[in-house]
Specification:
Layout (H helix, E strand, L loop, with lengths): L14 E5 L4 E5 L2 H32 L2 E9 L4 E6 L2 H12 L4 E5 L5 E5 L4 E4 L7 E7 L10
Antiparallel strand pairs: 1-2, 3-4, 3-8, 5-6, 6-7, 7-8
């Protein structure tokens, strides 16, 4: 869950120790460097908390609304729906709910895709002709009540 690696840049001339039991940091070194390292730790922990919050929101949203792209399967001679994973789904849904016309998605491999929310298509940023259509599905989970 918690990783010390990369929490403080190696450019700071400080020694950092973390006590997992008490959840405290100990820093030693020149005062200016210690203060800068403290600021860096605070900023990195804040970013980590925001990232964890976004991941939780994405997971919660995925249980309610899922975006798909339509894939033409030549082997089956038909179309299939391919669901976006949680984070891209979250990004698309937020843009859709905010009334945005377009957004850009970047894969973990660095490939960029454009999503046009007016026409509900996605295409690689380098090839507008390679379009796939999008579908938004709301997953409704309700409780049925019978009134007598």
């Amino acid at each position: 869950m918690f990783q010390m690696e990369g929490l403080v840049s190696s450019s700071f001339c400080v020694e950092v120790q973390y006590d997992k039991d008490t959840r405290t940091f100990s820093l030693s070194g020149p005062v200016g460097q210690v203060n800068a390292a403290i600021d860096s730790i605070h900023n990195n922990l804040h970013q980590l908390a925001n990232q964890e919050s976004k991941l939780k929101e994405a997971k919660d949203l995925y249980a309610k609304t899922v975006w798909h792209w339509i894939y033409k399967d030549t082997a089956c001679v038909g179309y299939q729906l391919k669901a976006y994973s949680e984070l891209p789904n979250f990004t698309i849904e937020r843009a859709y709910c905010d009334g945005k016309d377009r957004l850009e998605l970047v894969t973990t491999a660095g490939k960029q895709y454009c999503v046009d929310l007016r026409t509900l298509v996605e295409y690689p940023a380098t090839n507008k002709g390679d379009k796939v259509h999008l579908i938004r599905k709301e997953l409704i989970k309700g409780v049925f009540a019978f009134l007598f």
